[in-house]
Amino acid sequence: MADITYIPIRQLYPHPDNPRKELGDLSELAASIKENGVYQNLTVIPGHYLNSREYIAKCVDEGGDAAAAAAAWTPKAVWSSEDYTIIIGHRRAAAAQQAGLYELPCAIVEMDEREQMQTMMIENMQRSDLTVYEQAQGFQMMMDFGQTVEQISDKSGFSQSTIRRRIKLLELNRDSFKKAEKRGATLSDFAQLDKIEDLEARNRVLETLGTQNFNRAMQDVLEQQKWQHQKAEWVEQLKKFATEDSQASYQTHEHVNAYGKWGTKKEVVMPEDADKIAYVYKVSENQIDLYKPRDTEAEDASNSAREAARATEQLAREQFAAVTKLMYELRWDFVKDLTPAECKKHLPEILAYSTPILTEYRHMEDDENVLRLLGIGLDEQIREDTELEDALKMFNAYDTEPEKILLAVAFDATDSSREGYWSTEWNGPTGASKFVHRKNDDLDSTYELLAALGYEMADDEKALQDGTHQLFAVYGSGSQADTLCDKCKAAHPECDKCCKTCDDHCNAFQLCRKEYGE
């Protein structure tokens, strides 16, 4: 065991490779040291790397330029055999200096770089002093010194899989990672990022980690990832009988089929006349269209335009349905993960939400959905012959989680993947529907309850609710509730409602007609 030597603090230098980059708040430790002194010695090695001030002074003394020296300096630029470098005790040294101490008890040892790194890593991890990112950096540095994952595991106590996952985190954007840590992101949150294959997408989602938008961002990226895989599979199948044509359209070809982002279970079927007809396919962001040649001169241009409008309408319908379904899945997952204790804590809100629903809705057809919300799984044979009430009794759910049952039944009766904030209105001039924002009091009520239970709405959900979502701008006019059009105001300035003479049929006109029974 090394002898203890008291060394002036001014001769002690922090190690440039100390895994713990942030020493944290030292005020409490400094106050304790000021009152009681330092009970545990530091571990140091002889010598130190010149800091920037020392390096610049050395260069100037040797005839060099100060500015050039400042630009050239790095934390490990020049080693000096004088003074000492701290291996264990960085926080104690900084706090002691803050407390006004002159010297500290130190054990002087000899270590090579690998031993230094290993000692600092293990010491900090035993104290749980390192952040996840600092652990990752430390593991990587130990590997850079030639140690294997197995050796690091033996010395640190971390499993090999944990070490590999930590090192993988170094692929992520460092600044975004640290911001996520400060927002309170957990290890399980970071682990979810492993599901994302594309590094750029992983970093994009990392920016939301620790916020209410994280689950939505994960959902969006994983859906897109799933879509890209499906799209590639479809393309391979289409290549067997069709060629890609990026210029194909409804105007130049006859549309045969579409394979979209919101119907990924659809299968590509080779047409019977594929050996006679030159089929082509066009890949776009959200779908793949299959075409065959057409005689454009023999077709009426207006029919072609209407066909395109109907196709756009169908695409819009699918996108609105898809985003509505995704928002429902966020709410569904939140309800599924609630514990009985959380439900019991908010039983008054749940009852206020459930009572009018349970008295109005009597057709509980989707018993299986309720059971899944409760985490109860039935095999197919039992499910066919078992009523919801019997299944709940079978699993003793009435006694163990009555509050969760109440919430699950009410949620299933009210909410579904079809509940959204949009509807369609017929647009005569275009021969197709436009998609407009509509209020949904039932869904508002669901969100109010979930918010009371701790749910945080993603930005997409808020935009759909208030009518500002980009889909409304693309496929229709945004929310027009109770809004008078300019023609109405000009024709009847004294009236605050539209009348039946309005040609534009704005939303206020529809409300007016409904009120007067027309």
UniProtKB/TrEMBL annotation:
Kindly give the InterPro entries that the UniProt entry links to this protein: Chromosome_partition/occlusion, HTH_ParB/Spo0J, ParB/RepB/Spo0J, ParB/Sulfiredoxin_sf, ParB_N
Entry's Gene Ontology molecular function annotations? DNA binding
The family database entries (Pfam families) matched by this protein are listed as: HTH_ParB, ParB_N
Instruction: Indicate the secretion signal residues.
Output: none
Keyword Cytoplasm on entry: no
Task: List GO terms (cellular component aspect).
Answer: chromosome
> Which keywords does the record carry?
Chromosome partition
In the record, the note on similarity to other proteins reads: Belongs to the ParB family.
Stated name of the protein = Predicted transcriptional regulators
Q: Which organism is it from?
A: Faecalibacterium prausnitzii L2-6
